[in-house]
Amino acid sequence: MSSQDKSYFNFLTEGITGNQWGYGIRRVTLKTNPDAPEFVNKVPYTYTSSGFKSQEGNWFVCVRMNVDQCSPQKMRPFNQSSNIHQLWGEMILEFANDYTNKSNQISH
Question: pTM for the complete prediction?
Answer without folding.
Answer: 0.86
